[in-house]
Amino acid sequence: MKSAIALIIAILMAVGTRAAEQAFQLSADRAIIYTQKLDLNGGETLLDILRIYPDLMQEGFDNMLDGYNLRINNGPVNGDTRLLCSKIPASAIAKIQICDNSAVAKGTVGMGRVIDITLVDSNGGFSGTSNLEAGSDKLIAHTFDTRITSGGTDIYAIAAYSYQDIDQSVRQRQNISAHMVNRFTPCDRLFTDITQQYNGTRMYPGDGINKTSFEKYMARLRYFHDFPNSSELLFGANCQYTDNPHTTILNDASETKGISSVFAFLLAEFTTPIIAGMSATVGWEYDFDYSRHKSPDATHKFDHSNNDLYAQVKYNRGMWRFCIGDRVSFYHYGSPNGSHCDTRNNIEASAIAAFSPSGQMQLAYHRKFLNPSFLVDEDLSNDEWLLIKQSLTATYIDEIKFAYTLTRSNMVVNVSSAYVFMQNADNFWQIGSSIYYKLGILNLTAGTNIYANEHSNKSFATFHLAPRLSLPYDIHAASSMVFTTSNTSLPHGEDVYCDLKIDKEIGSHWKVMAEWHDIFTSRYSAFTGGVQYSF
């Protein structure tokens, strides 16, 4: 047994380049892709890079990023993330952080997951793209992004609008996100984020009209100060308002219900080195959410808050990287019928070994939870509230994770396995693997995800394939395919998904593109064409 382990370690140590040059790296609570270190053919987008991560290959056209919060320079982005990700060029991205267990460091509760994109440094000036798409089902969409850099100010803004008439419904989306960085001194930086989002749907079922809309406005400030000893101090504040009314019109009579809420948080965080190779982060965060649930009969008011203290310690020694962290959340939930308070912990412990210059292994433990207030965002009678209140304690999830990655400039192999203990539910295995390989004009990404329940027959697997060809005359052709086994299906109920996309660059500013998605689904199959102008 010992000789076998020694042989495995020797093989791992025999391959690769220096660890500092890896394009794909494991961290305690996330995976990091350094886009500029990948061997690319040019013309790749953010969407092409994200497919290197197994969990992000499972869905089709409009569901790839479900369950993830998209951020740029750690500022939130609203809107059609699929459309946005297919427009941001990989050449503009310095790194991508995919945070699956972000509760300690990112300030998201429980199962919240984050994709954080860091842009490359700008040399100044004015740049951006304008994209126009049109397609079947009366689809028209426009996105505009621009970056303005002057002196110590860097602004990145995105605006998008889409309209679609499909299946007796009209859908409209409008989104604006603006991110500004002000560098007052080499040690002082202010980050400002402003977002606006509107989604509206009108459905015509035959006997009336259903109108649903969603509006969200958010402003966030974060101030950083760097000290000479490499310490960093962060202060943050955020305010967000959402409104989600639903109106039904039948026989000239209307009925409106909906949810509106105000969310705010305050944050203070300090990171400092302790000894050589060791650093610590301590912080405090206060979140408050007040919501009103309006129905034709009554209006119910709810509030919940988290008062959090958190700490994280990192230690690097030789080929080893250790991390341990804990977020203690003092939770309160209140309503006219009563309130509930308890204390939760989000815990992380991770050990990463760079056995070879290009290979890394990780063993980690994470404890997270499902916030019970998420389960009661609806109109409640007194009896229903009393039943829910009895079980308002958070649902805990314990995860033991093993991961391995092997990286070269033209190849990334990623394997991740986790055993998940679900409180009052079936435990399950989750195994994901992917490989990215570049050979000449071909970029190939492939992988699989397997879910095996311990005490039920709900186990399933998905398989993924995404080739991309760089052809003569600046033409690029790409496809993504997803295959599922029994016990599961893709969002539109199909077992197989496939799309095909072709684009051509014209000069240094123009690009034209065409895409056919949901190829094997007659009901949802659709064609889109578009043009992009870069300036």
Mean pLDDT: 83
Distance between the termini: 60 Å
User: What is the number of helices?
Assistant: 4
Largest sheet, if any? Answer: 22 strands, antiparallel, barrel
Q: What's the number of extended β-strand segments? A: 28
Low-confidence stretches: 1-20
- Provide the helix percentage: under 10%
- Helices and strands: which structural class? mainly beta
Strand content: over 45%
Q: Tell me, briefly, the overall form.
A: globular
**What integer value in Å does the Rg equal?**
24 Å
Protein model, in words:
With about 525 residues, the chain is mainly beta. The protein has four helices and 28 strands. A hairpin with a 2-residue loop joins strand 16 and strand 17. The protein starts with a helix and ends with a strand.
Descriptive keywords:
535 residues; mainly beta; 22-stranded antiparallel barrel; six-stranded mixed beta sheet; 28 strands; 6% helix; globular; disordered N terminus
Write a brief caption for the model.
The protein is mainly beta. It is built from 4 helices and 28 strands. The protein has a 22-stranded antiparallel β-barrel. The chain has a 6-stranded mixed beta sheet with strand order 1-2-5-6-3-4.
List the helices and strands and how they pair.
Blueprint lengths: L1 H12 L10 E3 L4 E3 L12 H5 L17 E5 L2 E2 L4 H5 L7 E7 L13 E7 L5 E11 L3 E12 L2 E14 L2 E17 L2 E16 L4 E19 L5 E19 L2 E23 L2 E17 L4 E19 L2 E16 L2 E16 L5 E12 L11 H8 L5 E14 L2 E12 L5 E12 L2 E12 L6 E12 L3 E10 L11 E11 L3 E8 L8 E9 L1
Parallel strand pairs: 3-6
Antiparallel strand pairs: 1-2, 2-5, 3-4, 5-6, 7-8, 7-28, 8-9, 9-10, 10-11, 11-12, 12-13, 13-14, 14-15, 15-16, 16-17, 17-18, 18-19, 19-20, 20-21, 21-22, 22-23, 23-24, 24-25, 25-26, 26-27, 27-28
